[in-house]
Automatic annotation (TrEMBL):
Sequence ranges assigned to domain RNA polymerase sigma-70 region in this UniProt record: 37-104
Protein name in the entry: Sigma-70 family RNA polymerase sigma factor
Domain of life (superkingdom): Bacteria
Alphabetically ordered keywords of this record: DNA-binding, Sigma factor, Transcription, Transcription regulation
Signal sequence bounds: none
A Pfam family matched in the record: Sigma70_r2
Amino acid sequence: MSEDRRAEGQSEQSPWDMASGAFIAWRSGDARAVDELVAAMTPVLWHVVRAYGHDRESAEDVIQATWVGFVRLHRTIEDPQAVASWLITSARRGAAAHARAARRATPVQDETLHAALPDTESAEALAVLDDEASRLWGAVASVDERCRKLLRVVAFMDRPDYQSISQDLGMPVGSIGPTRARCLAKVRTALMRGGER
């Protein structure tokens, strides 16, 4: 509060009266009056915001946002007596919104998340599996066509029907097992060479 106002005996004013007086002076061009307004209302805003259970840092954020909003919107306040109410209402709304956001953003322990999430491979494990599959199919592509056909049929059947495979691939039933072993050996060799032909 300025010294001339204290001299006038107004030092015992309520924060509401001090706020409206400082607001009038600020709007009339006294730039220092906004400091008086801040000094009068900030302790009140602290009580309002802390009542929502905010810690010091959160309360500071809400109060700062309240003052920024006030500076931006002060021209919309027509009645100087409404300044304190405007600030308190704005601080309450900001504190409530901040509390809602904090509840939504509450960190959860990994153990709790693990129980709630479906069992899936990590991104790293999936990348390794994709790389292995790519290298494997690259090695399969490097062998002759007869081996590729046989390995594809055998790879995707739980219990291959050798009679059907014999008819589909035109090879005797007795040679399917040994041919498959030779084809797998070719794929293994191709994998060790990096899938090159």
